[in-house]
Amino acid sequence: MTWIRTIPLSEADDELRKAMEGQNALYPGEYAVPIHPAEGGGSEITASHSLIPQALYHAFATFGSLMSPDLPLERRHHEMIATMVSVTNRCVY
After folding, report:
1. How many separate helices (H) and strands (E) can be counted in the chain?
2. Per the count of CB atoms within 10 A, which of 1, 8, 53, 82 is most buried?
3. How many C-beta atoms lie closer than 10 Å to residue 34's C-beta?
4. What distances in angstroms separate CA 16 from CA 2, 21, 22, 30, 91, one per listed residue?
């Protein structure tokens, strides 16, 4: 659970909903179901950016673009890099 005020997907206005849906469209299908779901839908990490929809879109769309299957890294490489970054940062996700 985030410790800042967030706007759940169920209460999102058009701008926030469009930002959330737009960045979601860039992610591989495996990411459709959040590991740590937020109250009201979506993921907690995405919800933590819900007060600034444009920042939410740009931050997460960047990652979604980097996960493109058209790029030379395979999914296993992405997972290995993400795991090492999480361990280095002592992060749970």
Report:
1. 4, 0
2. 53
3. 15
4. 18, 9, 10, 23, 26
